[in-house]
Amino acid sequence: MNTQILHTRALTKRYGHHTALDDVDLDLPTGAIVGLVGPNGAGKSTLLALASGLIRPTSGTIDVLGTRPAADAAQLARVGFVAQDTPVYAGLTIADHLRLGRHLNPRWDTALADNRIRALGLDPDKKAGRLSGGQRAQLALTIAAAKRPELLIFDEPVAALDPLARRAFLQNLMEFVADLDISVILSSHLLSDVERVCDHLIVLAEARLQIAGETDRLVAAHHRLVGPRGDLPDLPPGIDVIATDHTERQTTLIVRNTGPDTPPALRDAPHLDLEDMVLTYLHRAAGTTDQTKTPMEANR
Fold first, then answer.
1. Is residue 210 situated within a structural domain?
2. Range of the domain at 287
3. 3-state secondary structure of 237
4. Are residues 184 and 279 part of one domain?
């Protein structure tokens, strides 16, 4: 079994003079449920398209499940990809979609697909164009899972869904992960969804990787230090300052502890929650300290 679902080194993608992804190094372990977050234009869809083999890098390397993406039919069968807006064919029935999936995928699980459609209460003879947004998303998830991949890649699969449909989709995704023993990369603008289902995190902004790693460890490593202006203690090696904010009376530092132990200077300092940590990196990448409107909020 491969130890990594995704391995990149200096991965870069350019379109003419525009750099969509710049010098990205990533190592994602097998079995991870990875949340990929960042504002529009950060490079999220580009990274997922590279991982799916839909496009090739300008420079650098990328391996998915130990081989080049879309290297051959065998590698394609190991990866399931659901693009933005969970695309399905409006003029085809649900049954047509399942027949097409069976025809195109050598590892197709007919029983899984049929049972899943039945459990959802969907009419196999109904055309996809007449399904609700949540039902189309569930159909796309069913097709991706019935392919029996080792890795499922989702590009903003729930962005257009209402809260109930979004919750149902994520719940079913978690069930598939548990039942099929697969890895997942999930791109989302919704940090609450990432926090709920993902155990690893990638933050992209301005086409560059800002931070990546196991979610709980990343959160535990970030602290907020507050003190009188200009009177904070000297920080020992192993503590990186991520952001600094000054008012007339006090200074606030957001820091990351990169060492194995918690130094005395951080023992009483509160941790950031996931949202604050992500937004700190997005503000830093954007070169803004305006906390009233985040880069992600501005692009929703």
1. no
2. 216-298
3. coil
4. no
List of residues 6+ apart from 81 with CB closer than 8 A: 48, 52, 54, 144, 152, 153, 154, 155
pTM exceeds cut of 0.85: yes
Among candidate residues 81, 26, 74, 34, the one with its CA nearest the CA of residue 55: 81
Q: With 60 as the cut, is the pLDDT of residue 85 above it?
A: yes
Strand partners, 63: 7
pLDDT digits (tens, 9 = 90+) for 58-76: 999 999 999 999 999 899 9
Same domain flag for 145 and 16: yes
Q: For 95-130, what is each residue's pLDDT tens digit?
A: 999 999 999 999 999 999 999 999 999 999 999 999
Same domain, 45 and 162: yes
Using CA atoms, how far apart are residues 286 and 295, in angstroms rounded to an integer?
7
**What is the Cα–Cα distance from 273 to 296, expressed in whole angstroms?**
17
Rounded Cα distance, 191 and 37, in Å: 8
Domain count, the chain: 2
Task: Look at residue 292 and tell me whether its pLDDT is greater than 90.
Answer: no
Cβ-based neighbours of 169, under 8 Å, separated by 6 or more: 134, 137, 138, 141, 157, 158, 161
Q: Examine the fold and report which residue of 151, 185, 205 is the final residue of a domain before the chain moves on.
A: 205
Q: How far is CA 162 from CA 45, 157, 186, 239, 267, in A?
A: 22, 12, 18, 41, 41
- pLDDT, the chain, mean: 90
- Residue 132 CA to residue 122 CA, distance in Å, equals 11
Helix 110-119, helix 133-146: angle, nearest 10? 160
